[in-house]
Design goal:
Layout: H1 2-10, H2 21-36, H3 39-57, H4 67-80, H5 91-110
Helix pairs in contact: 2-3
Length: 137
């Protein structure tokens, strides 16, 4: 109780909202990404959000999103994330999903919708650049 009162007194209390990740990402794209980021970046974020993130994680309340759920999403996308059902997405692509989630959740923290960015606690997949095959003389 004392901790709650302290948060109320200092203005750090964030009331639990019924905002879902899907509705937040849609709002974030409209209110932040399109006005502030390059059109190419925003278009890529929009496609990632609408085709991948929102269908899988969109119904989860923003304050109920956990690092474990995000990690499970990454694993799912790596193994069977292609929309044509022919396998998983590349680690580089899933890393882009992580970047989008992280940047969007940073805004959620700034907008006081959540207290912390849960994407900070998740490791994005590592990837290796493919070795280039070059011609010799």
């Amino acid at each position: 109780m004392a901790e709650l009162q302290h948060k109320l007194d200092t203005g750090d209390y964030i009331s639990p909202a019924k905002v879902t990740l899907g509705s937040f990402l849609t709002l974030w794209l409209e209110d932040y990404a399109w006005p502030n980021l390059s059109p190419e970046t925003t278009q890529a974020y929009d496609i990632m959000a609408r085709k991948h993130l929102i269908p899988v994680l969109g119904r989860i309340q923003l304050q109920q999103l956990t690092p474990a759920r995000i990690q499970a999403y990454y694993t799912e996308k790596l193994t069977s994330g292609r929309r044509d059902g022919q396998g998983g997405l590349s680690p580089r692509t899933v890393r882009h999903h992580h970047r989008l989630l992280h940047v969007a959740l940073e805004s959620a923290v700034k907008w006081q919708l959540v207290q912390r960015n849960v994407a900070d606690s998740v490791n994005a997949p590592k990837f290796r650049n493919k070795e280039m095959k070059t011609f010799d003389q």
